[in-house]
Amino acid sequence: MLKKNKELCPICNESIKKQNIKSLSLNDTTVTDSRVTKNGTMIRRRRLCVCGSKVRFTTYERIHRPELTVIKRNGQIIPFNKERIFQSVKVALNGCIDQEKKTEQISNEVNEKIQDIGKDSVPTKTIGEFILKALKERDKIGYVRFYGVFKKVNDPKEYKRIVDTIH
Ligand SMILES: [Zn+2]
Known about the structure:
This protein is 40% helix and 18% strand.
């Protein structure tokens, strides 16, 4: 419940006309009209104040969905972007015959896994590991390629070691 401010209505800010108002809550205002906004993202409600001022006002109700974010290695937080996964996978699968289709499948799979964690933010490392795992199961060359980029491999011996693990 909103706090009473002297003789002014805390909802509409007009002087209170009705006597003995038990509640000055937004909950008790009368909705005179309710409709979805033109762009379809909000519900707009016309309301009549309970204080007796007959003031009409509007409230907007919108979907609140916390946006998924990604925590980068340097600690920077950026909005999650499915397209980035797609691009990384696509690069890893460069030269693969069914590159587009495979890229689509793998990035969808990775995206689902990320959503399934059910958290508001995911570290880049986790996303990378998901991509790595999916590639390992589907495309060995892509896996080695992505591994090199993701783990920042610059020693050929390390490449040899990783290639050996997939045979
Ligand atoms: Zn009022």
